[in-house]
Amino acid sequence: MPLPMHADAHKWNELPAKFTLHDAPAELRLQCFLLIRDEHDRVALAKLQDTEGWAFPAETMRFNESPDEAVARVARSWFEVPPSEVWLERVLSFPATGPEDSRWYVLFVYGAKAPGDLKPTPDTEKLSFFAMDKPPERLAFSHVDVWRALQE
Questions:
Q1: 26-151, superfamily in CATH?
Q2: What percent of the chain has pLDDT over 90?
Q3: Of 5, 11, 12, 77, which has fewest CB within 10 angstroms of its CB?
Q4: The model scores a pTM over 0.85
């Protein structure tokens, strides 16, 4: 059975949205994460300017944006030189545990191998790789929930 993201786009554009718009608060949050792994299977996290903690490259999906389109946008917006090949690894679904507890997350998690010339955008203070069993001291946003969900 084909997924909606592979169907004719014009058919889906006629349907009313039942999920969050890009920056609007809502109960259901659709997001796309890009896990870039190095040769030691560590994942890339970014330390962004004016943000406390480390973050996965990720974005909230936009209205009528497919997961494949969203991961391409994540790669372009987080990296000047992004990975050239990505693949859908898994879909995660879980409730938020922070102050925004009214949210339920559905995440499309894509994987990629880190290219030798991986280069973040200028708003990134630092890009580092972390083993999944050794998270950084502080994760930004609600990415601690994502880190936990990736352990399961």
A1: Nucleoside Triphosphate Pyrophosphohydrolase (3.90.79.10)
A2: 55
A3: 11
A4: no
